[in-house]
Every structure is written in structure tokens, then in C-alpha cells.
Amino acid sequence: MTDNPFTITSVTSQYATQVAQDLELNAKEQERIGAELSALQAQLVVLQDDQSVLHSIQKTLGSRPASAPSTPEPSTSLPQQASGKNTTTRRAPSKTAAKAPSAKKTTAQAKKDKTQRAELKSATASAQPTLIALIRTHLDQQKEPRSAAEVTSALAEAHPQRKIKSTVVRTTLENLVAKSQAQRSKQGASVLYTSVAVQAAPQKAPATALPRTEQASNKREKAGAVRS
């Protein structure tokens, strides 16, 4: 008994449709996972930067001198001896003990000042804005889409003291796209990024066009009334 050719064709068509749908779902899933991976890589870079700052602060705090233990004053009471020369023996150690605390105070004060300067420097470095904040602000200020290379060049010129890499900037831009804080578009082989705030901003019509038209109309009406 032979199979019906129409049934075989129908089954083949159904399998082909199912495979095409599965391939489309697979491509979408790969794209989603790729975006999440880029976002996680950007977060990892930020966490590594924070870790280096925290290590610097920890090292600074660890070098702070501990409170110096109180040194007991040398006892001036010595065992009495039969000889009458005990007074000279007591005074000599007291002068040496009086000079030692002043030297210790000077060294401790110098270490304290050095530690305070290091802490102030670390606090100033940690107060700088993050790279993701700089990129978001830059995109908000642009009226046209920008590529990752253009964003990197602009930020490197505006912040020469920071080492800004194009790979990190591109990863951060993809992170913003994944968070719906930026939009990605293509122009040929170039990938461009635009701020969502710029896209959502309404186009303002020139406010002076309508009043000037009305003024001109009013002037023509007044001139016609004078002539009549």
C-alpha cells in the first residue's frame, strides 16, 4: 500500500515551517543572551574599578598608626643605699625619659598627616563620576546619533586624566541599550547610539513665526483702512 503524495507534501511543509520558526526563535534567544552578556561584562568592569578603589582605601586605612600605648613614667623611687650619692643617679634617667615622648609625638604627627593626605586623595578619586554616567550625559547632550568611537574620542578629550578604552565604552553603550536607556541603529556598517531622552524630546516649533505673520496682517489691515 503506497502513501498518499499529498499527505507527504503536507507533512514536509509542516516540518519546514516548524524548523524555520525554531531557527528564528534560536536567533532571537542568541541576540538576547548576547545583550545580557554585554551588560554583565560592563557591570564586571564597574565592579573591578570599585574593587581597586576599595583596595586603595583599605591599604590607606591599614597604614594608619595605632594609638601609642601609654608608657609608664620611670619611677623615681630607687632603693636606698648606704652612700649619699643616690640623688645624682636618680636625675640622669629622668632627663632621658623627658626627651623620648617628644620624639614619638613628632613621628606620630607626621604619620597622621601623611595618612590624612592619602585619605583625601582617595576620597577625591572616588568622587569622580563613573564611566556609565559620563556616557549617558554625553548622549543626552547630542542631537544626532554617535558611534562608540566618537563617544570614546569625545570623553578622552574631555577627561584626559582618565584612561578610557573604546572596548569598555562599546560594552557600556550596549548595557544602556539593554536597560532601554539608549537606542541602537545602523547606517551601513556603522553602529550608532542615541539617548532615549533625545528621541523622546518633542520638536519645538519656532515661536516667532506666528506672531510675525499676525503683525504683518495687522499692518496691512491698518494701511488699507487709512487709504480708504
Secondary structure: helix percent: 55-70%
Number of helical runs? Answer: 7
What is the gyration radius calculated from CA atoms?
39 Å
Write the H/E string, N to C: HHHEHHEEHH
Q: Give start-end ranges of low-pLDDT stretches.
A: 81-85, 205-210
Q: How widely separated are the two ends?
A: 105 Å
**Residue-averaged pLDDT, rounded?**
76
Number of strands: 3
Specify the biggest β-sheet: 3 strands, antiparallel
What labels would you give this structure?
228 residues, 3-stranded antiparallel β-sheet, flat, mainly alpha, 7 helices, Arc Repressor Mutant, subunit A, single chain
What does this protein look like?
Helices cover 69% and strands 6% of the residues. It has a three-stranded antiparallel β-sheet with strand order 1-3-2. Residues 81-85 and 205-210 have low confidence and may be disordered. The protein starts with a helix and ends with a helix. Strand 2 (182-187) and strand 3 form a beta hairpin. It has helices at 5-62, 86-126, 131-141, 148-158, 166-178, 196-200, 209-227; strands spanning 146-147, 182-187, 190-195. Among the domains are: 10-64 and 109-127; 129-201, Arc Repressor Mutant, subunit A (Orthogonal Bundle), CATH 1.10.10.10. It is mainly α and 228 residues long. It has seven helices and three strands; from the N terminus they run H-H-H-E-H-H-E-E-H-H.
Compile the SSE list and pairings.
Elements: H1 5-62, H2 86-126, H3 131-141, E1 146-147, H4 148-158, H5 166-178, E2 182-187, E3 190-195, H6 196-200, H7 209-227
Helix pairs in contact: 1-2, 1-5, 3-5, 4-5
